[in-house]
Amino acid sequence: MKGFIGLLCPCFLFGKNADFLGSGTLMGSCTTHFILWAFFNTICCFLTEGILLGLPGCFVACYACGYRKTLRSKYNLQEAPCGDFATHFFCHLCAICQEYREIRERSGDSNSSDLSLVAVTAPQVQKMETPPANE
Fold first, then answer.
1. pTM of the model
2. Contact (CB, 8 A) for 19 and 100
3. Which of 58, 90, 107, 124 has fewest C-beta within 10 Å?
């Protein structure tokens, strides 16, 4: 269901992600995302006569990749297989849905849509050690 919301109204899902990460409010982040998306979408449609309709996500990537970096640092996730900017640049809508799914799954309640009451602690960094040699 959230995949459809991410496709039809990405600003709402982006706002929920930002609100959960503590990097903004639902309305503030949602509005900023909507304004950037609408501005670049309008420019792209007028300049290319609708051919480059998917291009606005590329420009919004500059704004959105910071939230992805915050999510990765909160959960000790690696920046792989590509960077935060590249992920949002090439598939902005998929990145927003992926971030929402990651937050929902790590919050402990994969069925809940209200993530405001969840307290999350990052897992410890794990290291591999060589076993001691038998003497």
1. 0.64
2. no
3. 124
